[in-house]
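for the record, two folds in this file. i put them one after another cuz i was lazy. first one right below, seq on top, structure tokens after. the second one comes after a little note so u can tell where it starts
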Amino acid sequence: MFIVSQLSNTGGGIRRRRCYSIHTMRVICVLALSLTALLPVLAQTVANPVPGLPKNPREVFAAAAPFYDFSSPDLKPWHLRATYQLYDEKGKPAEQGTYEYWWASPLVHRSTWTRPDATYTDWYMADGSYAYESTGEPMNLFEHNLQAALLSPLPSPADLAPAKVRLDDEGVTENGPNGPCFTVVPMVKHDEAMEQPEQGPFPTYCFDSQKPLLRSVYSFERVLTQFGEIFQMQGKSIAREVSIIEGKHQLLTAKVEAVDQISASDPALTPTSSAARTDLAFIGLSNLNQVEIRREVMVGLLIKKVTPSYPKIAKTARIQGKVVLIATIGTDGKIHNLRVVSAPSAMLANSSYQAVSQWEYKPYMLKGQPVPVDTTINVIFALGK
């Protein structure tokens, strides 16, 4: 017995359908059912159909790291320009500024911040030397942090070493991008066991739900840095928009205006004749990569101290506590690479940063010559009776 063949008009011409016997149709049906049963197995062996990020926190950071490696020697020389808006203690617009970055190689790059009452520029050069130039008022902590938000928003692989930190899965946060969030918790040795230090809170990194892209970072108590309109530059991820907020108060907003290629010999990469120079690397000292000096030792070398102001709004809110900073003191005795490690609030962090950035020390001497050193600085804010 045969099935009658048919002619089908599909609108694009007449297509003839083939004619099969009943026995042939039964074989086709059995084969179809067998293939249906095999499809899940085949799908697993051919490709992983599950989209999204890895579940392991360390694997998430590892997957994102290549997209934020702006020191890769594979990059071609480039330049970035962004404009930013600062806000006062009440969250109202204050000064505006421009941030620019030139990059020629992992050793050669320049950063410049410019606003009406201040400028600051630093140059890193091929021989490992460092130059800087500043005028006007000290920089705001969050305009300085704009560089890190754009070019190094993730902790380095060394800072994520299992011996140093624990990564806690926070799930999806209220203000997150519906992706996973992980808190980086520093670990300390105590009685040969790894324990969480008392000091906190700790930074939390929130990622996109589908791609290894950083969407927000929580730091201090309530400071939130958000990244919007992420685009690709030579295979790296840059946020076109950056917003830094504490609670309901805006601290900074920024927008990347231009990213373009430059020549490795761009004149902007050469320090001006008026730029000051200092060593931030050890040259000619064998077996020395870093010297960290106790805070008590450096206090005796302090020759210029600017006292941080206690913001009125912080006093009114009865915010007090300790701001912990880490600084590199160059061979010139000036503060460089100043970072805020922890703070009770953004206001106290910014006040401490602006004051400590103006401190000066007698150069630290090692083997008869001045060397750069790292030290910890604590600033205490306490409400009076």
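(here's the note) second protein begins now
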Amino acid sequence: MLSPSRAYPAAFERLTTPSLRQLGRIASLSVLAAFADGCTAPPPSPFAGHNPSDPSVRTPAVRDGSTVAPYVSRRPADPVPWSQQNEQVAPPPKPAE
């Protein structure tokens, strides 16, 4: 009765624990893949215009612009009744039929 219960953990451990031979294969394949990747040519650089490392390439002129040019002062105003404010922004009433 106890033999199946002892056999299951041993079989489970054998399935989950890789052997040294498997680890050696994985390590050698990883090293081989790293060496093969190092022997390939570098990928081409994406072409989105002129080469930035070329000093003879013309560039657009730099212009100076104000960062606060559209500023409008927002000083506190006197309180106004809310109904008057709503009437100013409300759509016109529809004509009666």
